[in-house]
């Protein structure tokens, strides 16, 4: 298993929120979140509503994820 990229926390958060919106909280597994976060499209996305620039409005992003 390879190492996560520096923005892994943000990628995981983005993937989780997308999947919760699509399937609901109870219909989403940790493996699905990790899989979505690791996909090439998740890594290249920088314009989502949960990107680092906008997530600080809702709450500060943790740097110790």
Summarize the structure in words:
- The structure is a single chain.
- Helix 1 crosses helix 2 (30-38).
- It is built from four helices and no strands.
- The model is unreliable at 46-59 (pLDDT under 50).
- It has 65 residues and is mainly α.
- The protein has one domain (8-55).
- The protein starts with 7 loop residues before the first helix and ends in a 7-residue tail after the last helix.
- Helix content is 57%, strand content 0%.
- The relative contact order is 0.20.
- It has helices spanning 8-23, 30-38, 40-44, 52-58.
- The longest helix is centred in the N-terminal third of the chain and has 16 residues, at 8-23.
Overall number of strands: 0
- How much strand? under 5%
Mean pLDDT: 74
Largest sheet: none
**End-to-end CA span:** 18 Å
Alpha plus pi helix count: 4
- Structural class label: mainly alpha
How many domains? 1
Order of helices and strands: HHHH
State the shape: elongated
Q: What does the radius of gyration come to?
A: 12 Å
Unreliable stretches: 46-59
Helix content: 55-70%
């Amino acid at each position: 298993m390879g190492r996560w990229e520096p923005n892994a926390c943000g990628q995981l958060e983005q993937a989780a929120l997308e999947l919760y919106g699509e399937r609901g909280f109870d219909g989403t597994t940790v493996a699905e979140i990790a899989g979505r976060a690791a996909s090439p499209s998740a890594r290249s996305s920088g314009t989502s509503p949960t990107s680092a620039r906008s997530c600080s409005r809702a709450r500060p992003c943790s740097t110790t994820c």
